[in-house]
Fold Phosphatidylinositol-glycan biosynthesis class X protein.
Amino acid sequence: SVILDVQAACQDAIITQELLKEGFHRDLLVKVELGVAGEDAGGCAVAARTRLPPGIYVDPYELASLQQHNLTKAVLIPDVVDVEAPEYLATDLLVLLYMEPDPRCSRCFRAALPVHGRYHRPAEESEEALVVLKSPEVLVCCCDNRLSAECWKPAEVEAPCSGKTIGPCQWYSVTHKPAYEELILQVPVGLRQHSSLVCVVTLLATVLCSSLILAAVCKYGDFS
């Protein structure tokens, strides 16, 4: 019966993630519902650790602005991100997203993070590239050691407990059951057969604009 009691108390957390908006600029919404043991997580920090593939990134300057206004909190690894790099020159990005309690549910937490799609190489047929987001890992950090060792295992996390000022605390990894194993982001891409047309139009636009600028300079410029 002791084993059954432990299993009942160690129900898997349920995690869902959803992409809001359309196009290149999206909001990643993450929701976590802890198991029965999560009743003891009041006052603890809950976070989702996710690895973003090269096709998607977080703008560190935008994140810093949001954190300054207490709209979100996250740690980026690495903290320097090339926001101009295309997908084929970018690398993975590890994100630790701190979550806020959901007032409608005692064991529920949620957080939103702005993410952006990167430009991909032109494709042969499809006008969309697929970016696959794996399900995040659920982490909990409590400085008063009220967590059940049977349910949550220590995890190596190089980030402080959110809102804690009494020194480093131990993060724990929570066994979880994702609502979906993967989340697919569709990013618009160009078609290879359009490359010649794009080059010609770009060249004509460049020549036209240069001619207009030169004509304006000759007409209104003071060369005395």
